[in-house]
Design brief:
By secondary structure, this protein is of the alpha+beta class. It has one domain: Roll (Ubiquitin-like (UB roll)). It is built from 3 helices and 7 strands. The protein has a 3-stranded antiparallel beta sheet with strand order 5-3-7. The protein is globular. The protein starts with a strand and ends with a helix.
């Protein structure tokens, strides 16, 4: 996982039957912001740079067809099928305050 705002990478084991957001919660200091965990708030937006995933339904208010074509998805709604490399697009709470 790549957090360009902080120029960091985080590696973690994701379960193949669990959304990425739930898997990363086991990582101390998870870089992906957590919201509703159901695809409705758009807080956990990421771009998948490498790898394959399946996606559950996402709110079109937060993820457009163009977003999907560009692999922009919500971390709470994707399940990894292979190793993934993702870029964090969502703002962290610290970024929201500035």
């Amino acid at each position: 996982m790549v957090d360009k705002a902080k120029d960091t990478e985080v590696a973690f084991d994701a379960k193949s039957d669990q959304p990425v957001l739930l898997s990363i919660r086991s990582v101390v200091g998870s870089p992906i912001p957590v919201g509703c965990k159901g695809g409705g708030c758009g807080v956990c937006k990421v771009r998948v740079l490498e790898g394959n995933f399946s996606a559950k339904r996402m709110s079109k208010a937060h993820i457009s067809e163009q977003d999907l074509e560009e692999n922009v998805v919500l971390a709470c709604r994707i399940i990894p099928e292979t190793d993934l490399k993702v870029e964090i697009l969502a703002e962290t709470p610290e970024e929201d305050k500035s």
